[in-house]
Amino acid sequence: MFHATLVCTDEDCAVEVEAWGELQELEAMVCDGCACVLLVLSLGHVEPPLVVHLPQRSVRLPRAA
Fold first, then answer.
1. In the Cβ-directed half-sphere of 8, how many Cα atoms lie within 13 Å?
2. What is the pLDDT of residue 58?
3. How many alpha carbons fall within 13 Å on the CB side of residue 42?
4. Helix (H, G, I), strand (E, B), or coil: what is residue 26?
5. Element of type H or E holding 9
6. Residue range 6-63, pLDDT digits in tens
7. Domain ranges of the chain
């Protein structure tokens, strides 16, 4: 998975978008405003989130009076 900053190729539009996805998906994105192709300005690889299950800790509380 990649994190990218994309910009519209239409000079009159100048829309900038931040998106996450696979490289093929990012390269196929089009501008919502004018339907022109979005150009990738920056690209970074991100790892998918990892879920870690932590053991439950029991806390002993003093009894109420």
1. 14
2. 78
3. 7
4. helix
5. none
6. 999 998 998 999 999 999 999 999 999 899 999 999 999 988 778 888 888 877 878 8
7. 2-45
The per-residue pLDDT for 24 is 93
Cross-strand bridge partners of residue 7: 16, 39
Nearest CA among 41, 51, 46, 42 for reference residue 21: 46
What pLDDT shows up at residue 64?
Answer: 78
What type of residue is 41? L
Contact 38, 30 (CB under 8 A): yes
Residue 43: Cβ within 10 Å count? 13
Indicate the residue type of 64. Answer: A
> Among the residues of 1-65, which ranges form H helices?
23-27
